[in-house]
Specification:
Blueprint: E1 38-41, E2 45-51, E3 54-58, E4 72-76, H1 78-96, E5 106-112, H2 117-129, E6 147-149, H3 154-164, E7 171-173, E8 190-192, H4 197-211, E9 215-221, H5 224-237, E10 243-250, H6 256-268, E11 273-277, H7 280-292, E12 299-302, H8 310-315, E13 323-327, H9 335-339, H10 358-361, H11 363-366, H12 373-392, H13 414-423, E14 425-428, E15 431-434, E16 444-452, E17 458-467, E18 476-478, E19 497-501, E20 510-514, E21 519-520, E22 530-531, E23 536-538, E24 545-547, E25 549-551, H14 557-582, H15 587-590, H16 594-610, H17 620-653, H18 667-691, E26 695-699, E27 706-712, H19 716-739, H20 749-773, H21 777-808, H22 815-818
Parallel strand pairs: 2-5, 2-6, 6-7, 7-8, 9-10, 9-11, 11-12, 12-13, 25-27
Antiparallel strand pairs: 1-5, 3-4, 13-16, 14-15, 16-17, 17-18, 19-20, 21-22, 23-24, 26-27
Helix pairs in contact: 1-12, 2-3, 4-5, 12-13, 14-16, 14-21, 16-17, 16-21, 17-18, 17-19, 18-19, 19-20, 20-21
GO cellular component, one term: plasma membrane
Subcellular location: Cell membrane
Keywords: Cell membrane, G-protein coupled receptor, Glycoprotein, Membrane, Receptor, Signal, Transducer, Transmembrane, Transmembrane helix
Length: about 800
């Protein structure tokens, strides 16, 4: 595909590009790929169309060692897509008309400029060269285009006009307003159906005078449109009492640092009226950053480039009250119905499923209530069609060319069509259309004010008219009663915020402060925020109170995981119990009193299962049972281990001559020790339940946005007495086991009891700070984790070594081996 026309260095200057190429001329050769999306249709006469179907472009990096990649267009613009469809509609109407260009058809090539001069140049060269045609008709004959409709941006139009000028192809712009384009010496083939900026700045200067706005700032884009608009505005206010506070330029290549500098100037300036000369593509990211800076009290004056930009009005509500001049609206018959026939799977549109409603998904595309730019496109197409019709119906001897000749209908040159364009006059939708000597249309604007409709959506209300053809001082007519402008020091505070008066400034100057969490304001300009009721909390916007989230350790992912671990622990303990019962006659089971081992395993099973009582919504019974069951089962388990420790210590002490201690630690005495130690805990729990039992409570203090359902321990003293007693038993057991750790024997159980008690104490010591600092349901989860961790520690430390010998090393399960004898 061809991208650029490559002219040899030896190309003769005297040869016109419109003349037929001779054998001495170099052939056209493609210099790169061209893949811009577009529309095309064949006809007897071809017309070009260039529209900013995307509003920004990412240029590829260049390292000068490889061929650069194609520019990447981003940001689909449904508004410009509507303009392109308007051109297609107008051409189809003309082709079906019996009065205009009968027996002839108009074809078109429509390309995307991506709102960038470089891409616009690529597009117009593609129109001239043809995509994929190495032998371009531009090199061998008349132009394949008779005229071009484009572009929206003035910088793009300047590039296009200069590119088309050597081929004398006329171009009609539908939205380029730079006054520089009215210079017939520089742009002899340029026409437009939109007034130039000389009239716009006159209208804006008149508006400033009418409202008494004397201290203003200007923001402009870094293109010819912005440069010339600023020059014109300075010229218009030069001899008035209007003063310019600052003039800032949005960088061509977006830079957040530069934008922040501009916003800092706006923040510290006392000028509240800001005039913006920019297209919506450049302005959109600037306003996105403006929102974050909390700058208030700005009265925006929009140029015609963005005064009817739906995407800005919908995205940025703070622009309400914006006022500016828009090109006149008109009627395009059948436009809405035609737009609805467009295939939603077109490659130019953003990805979609094909089921979306265009009215909802692309409101800017379907906004045909008062077409302005689309109406200009419609007029531009009809201007070309009427001019071509007049050219083809030229009477011999009455033509505009040499010797009053006419053009040949089979070989129409663009420069011939331009002659007819200059003199064309026709009526479209009730409006008389013609061009002045500079190629400009009649200067006329609607004064637009941004307001909100009953449904909250943006509305562009026409509140006045500027007619440049009227006498000086009478051009501007305003309907004051319809206008909504932001002429206050500070903008209104929206619901969800309150007014905070600025120190040392009038009461009308204030800041809008968001309501604190838990407080709301549901009216505009609220002085204070109202606190939500106890069981309610503010929503994200701070405009209404919503019920607080109720939180407890339920059977969610965390609860299920803890449940599974507890059940697995209980099943594992029962399995160990079964192994011990099956091998109850073996020495390793009998050596330290098998009855105590069975008691320990049963109590450990209960310890695992009591963790399940902590999961679920707290009730009166579950709150009382969960703490008492936990404390009693653990006391029983530690008491059994204490009894076993005493037996181990006594067994080896009794081996000394004259020591009869074992008669005091028989099975009955062991049961008494276990019963007595457990009874103490039972009595503490009974006193706890009678005096101040645990109960379900609603905690709204720890996390104010939630209601935490938890079990209050009732008596803090009783709770810590319960834990303290378990700790006392564990410490006593640890000390006794530590004393017996070096007693002889290959299987000294005192070592394992020492290690198990060490793990048990470590778990519960670390539990205390974690329990105190954990929020909400995680407090309960920490307690369950401590129960399960300590239970697993006891199970593995006490019984894993025995199970290893019973199941895997049965040859060691003998009394001589256990006693350390050969």
């Amino acid at each position: 595909m061809s991208l650029l026309l490559w002219w040899s260095l030896y190309y003769p200057v005297s040869i016109s590009p419109l003349t037929e190429a001779t054998s001495t001329q170099p052939a056209c050769s493609p210099q790169g790929a061209f893949e811009l999306p577009g529309f095309s249709a064949q006809g007897d006469f071809m017309m070009g169309g260039i529209f900013p179907l995307h509003y920004r472009v990412e240029l590829p990096g260049t390292d000068y060692t490889h061929q650069p990649l194609a520019a990447l267009c981003q940001g689909f613009d449904p508004r410009a897509f509507r303009w392109a469809q308007t051109m297609r509609l107008a051409l189809e109407e003309i082709n079906q008309s019996e009065q205009l260009l009968p027996n002839h058809t108009l074809g078109y090539k429509i390309f995307d400029s991506c709102a960038t001069p470089v891409t616009a140049l690529r597009a117009v060269l593609a129109m001239l060269n043809g995509q994929g045609e190495e032998q371009s008709p531009m090199c061998s004959g008349a132009s394949p285009l008779i005229a071009v409709v484009g572009e929206s941006g003035s910088s793009q139009s300047i590039v296009l006009s200069r590119t088309l000028q050597p081929f004398r192809i006329p171009m009609i712009s539908y939205f380029s307003t730079c006054s520089c384009l009215s210079d017939r010496k520089e742009y002899p083939t340029f026409f437009r159906v939109v007034p130039n900026d000389d009239y716009q700045v006159k209208a804006i200067a008149s508006l400033l005078q009418r409202f008494g706005w004397k201290w203003i700032g200007v923001i402009r884009e870094d293109h010819d449109y912005g440069h010339f608009a600023l020059q014109g505005l300075k010229r218009e206010i030069q001899n008035t009492d209007v003063c310019l506070a600052y003039d800032e330029m949005i960088p061509k290549d977006y830079s957040r640092e530069r934008v922040l500098q501009i916003l800092e100037v706006m923040r510290h300036s006392t000028a509240r009226v800001v005039i913006v000369f920019s297209g919506e593509g450049e302005l959109y990211p600037f306003l996105k950053e403006f929102v974050k800076q909390n700058i208030t009290g700005t009265q925006w004056v929009a140029s015609e480039a963005w005064v009817t930009a739906n995407v800005l009005a919908e995205t940025y509500p703070f622009l309400d009250g914006t006022i500016g001049f828009a090109i006149r609206s008109g009627k395009v018959p059948g436009l809405r119905d035609y737009l609805q026939t467009v295939n939603p799977r077109s490659p130019l549109m953003p990805p979609c499923s094909g089921q979306e409603t265009l009215l909802e998904q692309h409101s800017a595309y379907m906004n045909t209530s008062s077409p302005r730019v689309a109406y200009n496109v419609y007029k531009a197409v009809y201007a070309i069609a009427h001019s071509l019709h007049n050219l083809l119906h030229c009477q011999a001897g009455a033509g505009p060319f040499h010797n009053r000749s006419c053009a040949h209908s089979t070989n129409v040159h663009p420069w011939q069509l331009q002659q007819y364009l200059q003199d064309v006059s026709f009526n479209v939708s009730g409006e008389n259309m013609n061009f002045d000597q500079k190629g400009d249309a009649i200067p006329s604007y609607d004064l637009i004010n941004w307001q909100r409709g009953p449904n909250g959506g943006p509305r562009f209300v026409t509140v006045g008219l500027y007619d440049g053809s009227k006498d000086s001082g009478k051009e501007l007519a305003i309907q004051q009663e319809k206008i909504l402008v932001v002429s206050v020091c500070s903008a209104s505070c929206a619901p969800g915020s309150r007014k905070a008066v600025r120190r040392g400034e009038p009461l009308c100057c204030f800041d809008c402060v968001p309501c604190d969490s838990g407080k709301i304001s549901y009216q505009t300009d609220s002085i204070d925020c109202k606190e939500c009721p106890e069981d309610f909390w503010s929503n994200t916007d701070g405009t209404m109170c919503i019920p607080k989230v109720v939180e407890f350790l339920s059977h969610d992912a965390m609860g299920i995981a803890l449940t599974v671990i507890a059940v697995v622990g209980a099943c594992l303990t029962v399995s160990v119990l079964a192994v011990f019962l099956h091998h109850r006659t073996t020495p390793i089971v009998r050596v330290n009193n098998s009855e105590l081992s069975f008691f320990i395993l049963l109590s450990l099973t209960l310890c695992f299962l009591c963790a399940l009582m902590f999961i679920g919504e707290p009730t009166s019974w579950s709150c009382m049972l969960r703490h008492t069951a936990f404390s009693i089962t653990f006391s029983l388990c530690i008491s059994c281990i204490l009894g076993k420790t005493l037996v181990v210590l006594a067994a080896f002490t009794a081996a000394r001559p004259g020591n009869n201690i074992m008669k005091w630690l028989g099975p009955k005495q062991q049961r008494v020790i276990i019963f007595s130690c457990t009874l103490v805990q039972v009595l503490i729990c009974a006193a706890w339940l009678m005096a101040a039992p645990p109960y379900p409570s609603r905690n709204i203090q720890d996390q104010r946005s939630k209601i935490i359902l938890e079990c209050s321990v009732g008596s803090q003293l009783a709770f810590w007495c319960v834990l303290g007693y378990i700790g006392l038993l564990a410490c006593l057991c640890f000390i006794l086991a530590f004393l017996a750790r070096k007693l002889p024997g290959n299987f000294n159980e005192a070592k394992f009891i020492t290690f198990s008690m060490l793990i048990f104490c470590a778990v519960w010591i670390s539990f205390i700070p974690a329990y105190v600092s954990s929020p909400g349901k995680y407090t309960v989860a920490v307690e369950i984790f401590a129960i399960l961790a300590s239970s697993f520690g006891l199970l593995f430390c006490l019984f894993a070594p025995k199970c290893y010998i019973i199941l895997l090393k049965p040859e060691k399960n003998t009394k001589p081996h256990l006693m350390g004898r050969k």
